[in-house]
Write a structure and sequence with these properties.
It is a single chain. By secondary structure, the chain is mainly alpha-helical. The protein has two domains: about 35 residues, no CATH class; about 45 residues, no CATH class. The chain has a two-stranded parallel ribbon with strand order 1-2. Helix 3 runs antiparallel to helix 4. The chain is elongated, with a radius of gyration of 21 Å. The two termini are about 35 Å apart.
Length: about 110
């Protein structure tokens, strides 16, 4: 089975038409577009069905409330409060000295 996730309806309609690869090969993928996936913005619903919430975040990338709901569903309450506190307060970023950094081999 081939699953194609589309973030806009025009691409989903185009993908439905594609399938004939020539010869005797015909591909019939499952196309999922934005109209087939609900916009999940409630963290409680996202917690109850995390897979659908993740799919909703992927298919509706412009809906920031969906990402907020998924983040809230993945974060314990304590972590959410700490993240909210950190985003409100400026913080300084310290770096380790260059000499103390670990060098990773390049492949």
């Amino acid at each position: 089975m081939l699953l194609i996730l589309c973030t806009d309806e025009a691409t989903a309609r185009w993908a439905v038409r594609c399938g004939d690869l020539g010869g005797s090969v015909v591909l019939k993928p499952v196309i999922v577009g934005p109209s087939a996936v609900p916009v999940i913005t409630d963290p409680d619903i996202a917690r109850a069905d995390l897979e659908m919430a993740m799919l909703s975040a992927f298919v509706h990338p412009d809906e920031h409330r969906v990402l907020d709901a998924v983040f809230a569903a993945l974060s314990p309450d304590d972590d959410r409060r700490q993240v909210e506190r950190r985003t409100r307060e400026p913080r300084s970023v310290s770096r380790r000295p260059r000499r103390g950094r670990r060098r990773w081999p390049l492949w």
